[in-house]
Amino acid sequence: MKLRRLVQRGTSLGPAVVVGVAGFGLWEGTVRAFGIREFLLPKPTSILAELQAEWPVLRHAGWETGRIAVSGLLVGILAGVLLAMFTTRFRTLNEGLTPLAVAVNATPIVALAPIFNAWFGITGTLSNQAVVIAVVFFPVFINTARGLTEVHPDEIELMHSYAAGEWTIMREVRVPNALPFFANALRVVAPLSVIAAIVAEYFGGPQDRIGNVITSNAGFARYDVAWAAIAVASAVGLALFAAALLVERVSMPWRLAVGGSDSNNNPGRET
Amino acid sequence: MSTGGDVPAVVVDGVGMVFNEGTGGEVAALDGIDLTIRAGEFVTLIGPSGCGKSTLLRLIGDLLTPTAGGVSVFGRSAHESRTGQDYGMVFQHAGLFDWRKVQANIELPLELRGWSRSDRGARSSEMLDLVKLDEFSDHYPRQLSGGMQQRVSIARALSFEPRLLLMDEPFGALDEMTREHMQSELLRIWGETGTTVVFVTHSISEAAFLSNRVIVLSPRPGRVHSIIDVALGERTPDTREDPDFFAAATTIREALRSVGGAE
Ligand SMILES: Nc1ncnc2c1ncn2[C@@H]1O[C@H](COP(=O)(O)OP(=O)(O)OP(=O)(O)O)[C@@H](O)[C@H]1O
Ligand SMILES: [Mg+2]
Fold first, then answer.
1. What are the two backbone dihedrals, phi and then psi, of residue B31, each rounded to the nearest 5 degrees?
2. Sheet strand arrangement including B10-19
3. Residue B263 pLDDT more than 80?
4. Reduced 3-state DSSP string for B49-84
5. Residue A40 near residue A34, CB atoms below 8 Å
6. B84: chain A residues, CB-CB within 8 Å
7. Is B64 exposed, middle or buried (0-12, 13-18, 19+ CB in 10 A)?
8. Each residue of B198-232: pLDDT tens digit?
9. Closest C-alpha among A221, A217, A215, A218 to residue A203
């Protein structure tokens, strides 16, 4: 059973690997064939070479930026989930806050990075972290709040017929009901946290981070190093996305059993 | 299984229900309902769509509070009975929790009552046996057919031996064959547990087959139009072809017709 699943996973990954390798080959070939200049688009092999040559700097930068992303992610998630649970308990609060949150969420929060610098200081990491938290918080809050409130009325009546209290209903019905909604948000915000951290770093913060490595190397026309830094950033983003998928799988075994609605990320339940 | 004396299971006394009272969009759902249901009885509510059957069931279950009159259950107020966990409920939509396996779904009300793990396990396997789903204890609800889910839902409602079972069109979504099978199962379980059942249905034959008494409601606002005694004795598969069964169905149909029901 386990083995079969593993083999299935392997074969389903196959096409992606083929396409990926072919893509890089095509990239390399095109740059060479047309003599495209390095500052426009470096060859994958030169990016790889820089990745190796600059590895100590890049690894450090990736680690530090990753830490900002992950810590902001965790704080944003925690705040979003807790506030969602809190507002669910107080209906009017929920009805007042949700449209506001949706509106804020529709504004490009990373654009606030320079303003956050003014608020939280331009040299420290606090303002970068604040950008990540703000970017993560809203999707998590909005989705989780929906999942906590969009419960089938029969399920609530059933719990009332058992004389269950609000807290029991939260634990037994609302929270599990919200898990797929939360997982959807997680898939979005996990890679987004890295983007937010890097964009924030473009505007300030310590100088040894991915964002600054990209801007400073691009400034000195060392585009292959900038690209190598981007590669590191996307690896961090992918790792966080993979972690989000893992959380999704582990926390909702019933969804797997029913025949993985994995690719279709519709949290809504039928009927 | 009769509990001491002749305390009726349910007494509905002059109950009226107006939704959205005091606002512009008032809806008078029920008016002047008087009803007494004996302990151990199987009573069916039938009537045209929108006549207030579900509302009456919810009032008995203290999920709604009447705007007139009162409901008592086994000599206590409906509210006391609910908080005292006297009720088992089954809805048209099986209402199982996707995230709990079949066995865990059945054990939910037992958990809420603080039963120990071993007691819960013993009872839930008993219940799975009763609804003939022992092989599926480890499945998730979504892995079962609609009929099987509905049986789990019934097992869940019966697991803690509620004194009163309230069922709102529990078989409405099932095909005819499954439905007849489930009806027989329900009667068997009812016979074995001696619980009192209030059952809402749209189906005349279902009402005739299941009940000791059929309450026919008239629409808008719902009132008790007539109460039909169904004396068919022990139900067997042959009951469905019994002339008495057809006679009962005809009586119900005529009552519904005079009430203006489309069915
Ligand atoms: N929460 C509510 N708010 C306002 N009106 C309601 C509410 N619930 C029910 N009603 C109204 O009360 C009346 C009775 O509804 P009810 O659901 O009890 O009917 P029913 O007999 O169960 O119908 P059906 O057979 O279609 O299930 C209807 O007119 C309905 O619109
Ligand atoms: Mg109804």
1. -145, 125
2. B27-37, B10-19, B68-73, B76-77
3. no
4. CCCCHHHHHHHHCCCCCCCEEEEEECCEEHHHHHHC
5. no
6. 163
7. buried
8. 999 999 999 999 999 999 998 888 888 889 888 87
9. A215
Torsions phi, psi of B15, nearest 5? -80, 130
Residue for token pair 């067997």: B236
At B1, the pLDDT band (50, 70, 90 cuts) reads very low
Q: Which residues pair with A176 in a beta bridge?
A: none
* Winning range, highest mean pLDDT, from A34-38, A245-249, B127-131: A245-249
The CA-atom distances, in angstroms, between B203 and each of A66, B58, B123 are: 63, 20, 32
Beta bridge partners of B44: B199, B214
Which ligand 1 atom sits nearest the alpha carbon of residue B48?
25
CB atoms within 10 A of CB B104: 17
pLDDT of B122: 92
The label of the residue with tokens 């634990």 reads A171
What is the widest separation between alpha-carbon atoms in chain B?
54
* Interchain contact B85–A (C-beta under 8 A): yes
| Residue ranges of domains in chain A, CATH in brackets | 66-257 (1.10.3720.10)
Residue nearest to atom 23 of ligand 1 (CA): B50
The DSSP string of chain A is: -HHHHHHHHHHHHHHHHHHHHHHHHHHHHHHHHTT--TTT---HHHHHHHHHHTHHHHHHHHHHHHHHHHHHHHHHHHHHHHHHHHHHHSHHHHHHHHHHHHHHHHS-GGGGHHHHHHHH-SSSSHHHHHHHHHHHHHHHHHHHHHHHH---HHHHHHHHHTT--HHHHIIIIIHHHHHHHHHHHHHHHHHHHHHHHHHHHHHSS-SSSHHHHHHHHHHTT-HHHHHHHHHHHHHHHHHHHHHHHHHHHHH-HHHHHTT---S----PPP-
Cα distance between residue B61 and residue A154, in whole Å: 13
Name the architecture of domain B1-86+164-263.
3-Layer(aba) Sandwich (3.40)
Distance B56 CA to ligand 1 centre (A): 9
How far is A201 from A194, CA to CA, in rounded Å? 11
Span(s) in chain B for CATH 3.40.50.300: 1-86+164-263
Contact between A261 and B98 (Cβ < 8 Å): no
B146 Cβ under 8 Å from any chain A Cβ: no
Chain B within 8 Å of A169 (Cβ-Cβ)?
Answer: no
d(CA B51, nearest CA chain A) in Å: 20
**How many whole angstroms from A157 Cα to the centroid of ligand 2?**
14
- Rounded to an integer, the average pLDDT of A127-132 is 89
- Asked if A162 lies within 8 A of B112 by C-beta distance, the reply is yes
Structure tokens at A120: 């939280």
The vertex-B205 CA angle with B200 and B210, nearest 5°, equals 60
